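Thread: Modeling a multi-component assembly for a lab meeting

Hi all, long-time lurker, first post. My supervisor asked me to bring a structural picture of a complex we are working on to next week's group meeting, and I have zero experience with this. I have the sequence lines for every component (594 residues in total). Could someone generate the structure of the whole assembly? Inputs are pasted exactly as I received them:
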Amino acid sequence: MAPVATPFFFYLLGGIMLLGGILVITRRNPVHSALALIVTLLAQASIYLMLYAPFVAGVQIILYAGGIMVLFLFVIMLVSIDRAGKERQLNSQWIVGTIAAIALGGLFIAVYAKGSGIFPEHALPMVENDNTQNIANMLYGQYMFAFEIASLLLLVAIIGAVVMAKKKI
Amino acid sequence: MNHLYEYIQSYLKSDQTPGAAGNMFWVLVYIMLVFAALSVAVIAMNWLERKILAHMQVRLGPMRVGPHGLLQPIADALKLLLKEDLIPAEADALIFWVAPFVVVLAAFTVFVVVPFGPTHAITDMNIGILFMLGVSSLSVLGIVMAGWASNSHYPLIGALRSSAQMVSYEVAMGLAVVSAILMTSLNATGTGTLSMIGIVQAQQAQGEWFIFKFFPLGLIAFFIFAVAMIAETNRAPFDLAEAESELTAGFHTEYSGFRWSLFFLAEYSAMIAVSSIAVTLWLGGWLRPFPNLLSGRAADLIFSLVPGATFLFLAAMCFFNTVRMPKHPLFRVQTMGLAGFGVVLALVGLVLFIPAVSFRVQDVFWFSSKVAVFMYFYIWYRGTFPRYRFDQLMQIGWKTLLPMGLGVLILTASVALLQQNLWHP
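Re: Modeling a multi-component assembly
Sure thing. I ran the full set together rather than chain by chain. Output:
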């Protein structure tokens, strides 16, 4: 079978992601922003597919596009659109934000210009079929401790949310 | 020309799905076939649901258009296409316009990986089940978009209810699915699979449908999924998103004509999709009943006669009702129509008796008849259960199904470990 990971698809998906990202910050209507973010996340899932990581792509769709973004929309839909449109679109952290963005952009340009030594010359041959097994072996073998700590962190966040939301438990 | 012919022919010798063989022609043919079959199934479901519900409530149901109302769905479809397509003045036109297509796309894309037989699937992905769950979870986005873009109170409440419900039941559903996937790894190599075809083949290799595996653990997981899938598809008794006594029609109140019919199409094909997940994971997919208990050539022969016999039985029912039609001259056309339908069914039945055809098609027959049982259950639930209140719905999802799912998952894992380490050291 011909490989799908052609430059054409990469530029197409990258373009969709960029367009979605730009729409997220330029739309005044928060629901439109959230929908544009979903487009970006779906294009990102396709890029994972191109990188022969189908499991990551599936999880990206289920968790981000299907789960978290639905909850986002759930909250945003209850916001009054008329009032949200009149809110100031810049807040007082814009100076810090600009500095961080310029720094990150500079880093990208630096890597692009003289980073050829950082990456391996040839990509390792990746076997699509073993992606799920490999991730499972790494998560529950090599990185077991980090994985458990991350779960504990999430558990603390869940309990915290319940404690803050409920007056009487 | 000859080259093209060879390209088309080459797939017939392989024993792979067209997607895995990389043959674009057959991929397109399969997509067309699946799409056509789905549309026919949705039309049939429309008629069956009204008929079965009517008989459950001691009514006749549609009787006027065609014999026993058989042409009613076509009349309905025509009416919907001719209706005016309204977009409310204050609605967000773009999102209002896109929402039905998102729902339909999500509902139909899922069928790319549904295994109707070992080679009868459009393609087989190694993340098959994950893909199905992920893409079908995108349909909630369409519902939310429709509800919000209508800029009206009932649709918004319907969409909010629907999203809360689907996000909550997805958790229990996922846990049930994981416990079934765990069972696929109980083989010599110890590696499970997420591929839809692989899951059925694992059941074949282990000689047991997963619903009976580690009795009653498989059964409980299946039960959790069976409840969660009704909530996922927004059907009675969990149809709070479109509770007509409270919200008019819920999230699609403002939709009319063609756009409304897209929601209808998506709802029914999503029902078929989740039913086929349940069939694949727990009921042995395309495998015929008792593949191990009643094995051998005689059993194979008898079971290969079942598809044809089923169609002949349906044809016999048609002829029986043809005889029972009123003998009034006004009913002559309808009687002839019913007899003609019976003849078509009988012909299909006879074709299915040809060994070559029956050998190719029986997988598809067993898969679809298992799905059909689920579709009947959907109608049956709607005729039986009263609608739940929203807090009851949330209580079932979070306080009953979720702990049950967690328990089943832990127990399945422990039993599987025990079995592999103690009984087969």
